[in-house]
Amino acid sequence: MGWTIGRLAKRHGLSRSTLLHYDAIGLLRASARGGGDYRVYDAADDERLAAIRRYRRAGLPLAAIRDLLDGGENSLASILGRRVEDLDAEIGELKRQRAFALKLLGRAEGLPPAGIPLDKKRWTELLRATGFSEEDMRCWHAVFERTDPEGHLRFLEFLRIPGEEIAAIRAFSSAPGRILNLHRHTERYMDYFLELMRDMPRLAPGGREHTLRALDLAGPLPEQPRILDIGCGPGSASLVLAERTGGTVTAVDLHQRFLDELRERARATGLEDRVRPVRGDMAALAFPPGSFDLVWAEGSIYLMGVEAALAAWRPLLAPGGVLVFSEIYWLTDDPPKDAQDFFALDCPNMRRAEDDAAALRAAGFTPLGGFTLPPEAWTAEYYGPLADRLPGFLKAHGHVPEACMAAEAMRKEIDLFQEHHAAYGYAFQIARRDG
């Protein structure tokens, strides 16, 4: 007996897109293909999907389920043990927040009188008076967003926070490990991290020649194409794209400091009329559907995760438009343990480049090609300049703990690459939107 993807999805109460996602990540692939290359699932596939659903009900992540079903090194006991630890931590956090809410209710004098609106400033003052640190506040938002996203949105609107700031707060609250890691040591840590990156030519591995090579693989574009550069940083790619294509580039980043740098660089190169810096959140871009012929994300897609980014960004492309992004991938099936440990928090879903080619097809794209950056692409304009500036940065800010932590994190990252650059690397993916 066999099932089509639609029938199998209905049998298990899932959506067709869920099974396509499982196929893209190698969790559940059809055992056969029928006429017209349609997927056909057999009894073994049905049993595997039933097992996936059981493990999902226990809260196991998809990567752990795949490892378990494929006979990986991790046993069910070890995976469930880690899940119990995670649940204990979440329960502890929820209990702490419940106690906090009860404490707030008991501080009637701290709440505004009836008729006087509660705004962000008053709420933040109340939190601090109750003993909340900056880290506590971030955790509070993260748990609120995870457990009740609609309630979190309504609460932020109740505080009369502007829409753009609400989008940034929610994106941060639901962000993967990299963003949370950058912010976890208080806002001062992020301030010093940005100071370390100030005036850097690039914020990720690569160079002009790699941007141009990826642009060539994108194929012919309309005359004066409309381009969106997502997570543009100081705009190295934005300037190359505007110069080479003759089009207009809307360059989006969450950090105004980088946008100011880009604006100055565009003015210095005579491209200020064709490069438009826009402050915004890549997870909540407010552009009309079909606004762009080319969407570019060089070294930034990891902040959302590939599947989430494909779903959010595809509508922004005109039919036949092209998506280009670069992402970090394992280059081996057996990466060294210290490299795995290092990326476990920052890039927990790190995988092989071919996995993202499958994800592109599942999301409605046709892959056009791609390539892996050579090791020197990491050092020439990225790690090299960073290593050179670390001594001066520490001389100026070494008395500040957050600055020392930022410098140490970057030094550890550079040292890891020097030792294990054969195990991982950045690669470009180029794909055309279907339909």
Fold and architecture overview:
The chain is α/β, with parallel strands linked by helices. Helix content is 54%, strand content 14%. The protein has 19 helices and nine strands. The strands form two sheets. A seven-stranded mixed beta sheet has the order 5-4-3-6-7-9-8, sandwiched between helices. Helix 7 (134-147) packs across helix 9 (163-173), helix 12 crosses helix 13 and helix 18 packs antiparallel against helix 19. The longest helix is centred in the first third of the chain and has 30 residues, at 76-105. The chain is globular, with a radius of gyration of 23 Å. It starts with a helix and ends with a strand.
Helical content stands at: 40-55%
Strand content: 5-15%
Tell me which oligomeric state these chains represent.
Answer: single chain
Order of helices and strands: HHEEHHHHHHHHHHEHEHEEHEHHEHHE
Instruction: Compute the separation of the termini in Å.
Output: 33 Å
Provide a count of the helices: 19
Structural class from helices and strands?
alpha/beta
What's the rounded overall pLDDT mean?
Answer: 82
Tell me how many strands there are: 9
Gross morphology is globular
Strand arrangement in the largest pleated sheet: 5-4-3-6-7-9-8
Query: Largest sheet, if any?
Result: 7 strands, mixed
Low-confidence stretches: 175-186
* Rounded Rg: 23 Å
